[in-house]
């Protein structure tokens, strides 16, 4: 098992390092921007420039230095980067089948479920690591660019945002793993779940604008991760993390069940 995990991490190391650098730099830029805006007394005025339908999801972030500094944890670009990376990482079993490597692996006395466990380990650890890099970059940037610790975001809020970001990426990673247990091409699994992720993100966004579809929007994992609500202290964190965890667990369970029974 350890050898399988090491092999997978060795293959993704360049991509993982590149994404870590991008999200860390983005986080540092946000803190720098927040410091400049706060220094000019513009904090709070930006919120009035945000359309009314986006006030719930993002408008509250512009009300304080801490809000601007933490917006990276729920910015659409960062969220989708982590989600799509999780989808790619978790699709490795399909890649093993497509390339024929699975035949070499299964020629040894290895339980099939080890391949699923390997992919779960690589995906979950990688996404958690990226969220941790963002938190570390935030802390370093705050220490270097802000001399007013009383305005810094609270640790509990940062940890909550990081947990939600990690869990929503794990959700789609889990279902990418489940899809890869059915299909024979990695690109197929990645395409199916990536398109679903974008569709669910759009559904949640439309739900914030059009109340008539708000109930349907609750089917989207993104419905349980609204950064603005977390910053405002109105999010039901326990419920949200529990739902995201349940979605992930179902995907993982399906992957184990199907991969153990598929024709390789």
Can you tag this structure with a few keywords?
264 residues, mainly alpha, 11 helices
Q: What number of domains? A: 1
Quickly give the structural class. Answer: mainly alpha
How would you describe the oligomerization state of the chains in this entry?
A: single chain
Number of helices: 11
Q: What share of residues is helical?
A: over 70%
What is the number of strand segments? 0
Gyration radius over CA: 20 Å
* CA-CA gap between termini: 20 Å
Q: Given the C-alpha coordinates, what overall shape results?
A: globular
How much beta, percentage-wise?
A: under 5%
Task: Give a short account of the largest sheet.
Answer: none
Order of helices and strands: HHHHHHHHHHH
What this model shows, in words?
Helix content is 72%, strand content 0%. It has 264 residues and is mainly alpha-helical. It has one domain (2-259). Helix 1 packs parallel to helix 6, helix 3 runs parallel beside helix 7 (155-180) and helix 3 (76-90) packs antiparallel against helix 8 (186-209). The mean pLDDT is 85.
């Amino acid at each position: 098992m350890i050898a399988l995990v090491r092999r997978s991490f060795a293959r993704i190391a360049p991509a993982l390092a590149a994404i870590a650098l991008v999200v860390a730099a983005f986080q540092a830029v946000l803190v720098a921007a927040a410091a400049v805006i706060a220094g000019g007394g513009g904090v709070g005025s930006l919120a009035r420039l945000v359309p009314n339908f986006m006030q719930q999801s993002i408008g509250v972030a512009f009300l304080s230095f801490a809000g601007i500094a933490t917006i990276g944890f729920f910015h659409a670009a960062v969220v989708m980067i982590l989600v799509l990376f999780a989808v790619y990482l978790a699709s490795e079993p399909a890649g093993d089948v497509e390339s024929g490597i699975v035949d070499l692996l299964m020629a040894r006395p290895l339980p099939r479920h080890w391949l699923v466990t390997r992919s779960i380990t690589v995906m979950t650890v990688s996404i958690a690591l990226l969220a941790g890099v963002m938190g570390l970059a935030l802390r370093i940037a705050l220490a270097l660019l802000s001399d007013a610790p009383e305005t810094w975001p609270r640790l509990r809020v940062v940890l909550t945002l990081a947990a939600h970001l990690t869990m929503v990426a794990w959700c789609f990673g889990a279902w990418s793993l489940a899809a890869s247990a059915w299909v024979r091409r990695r690109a197929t699994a990645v395409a199916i779940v990536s398109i679903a992720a974008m569709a669910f993100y759009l559904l949640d966004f439309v739900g914030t604008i059009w109340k008539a579809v708000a109930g349907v929007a609750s089917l989207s994992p993104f419905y349980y991760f609204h950064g603005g609500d977390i910053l405002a202290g109105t999010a039901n964190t326990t419920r949200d993390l529990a739902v995201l965890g349940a979605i992930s667990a179902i995907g993982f369970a399906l992957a184990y069940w199907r991969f153990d029974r598929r024709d390789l």
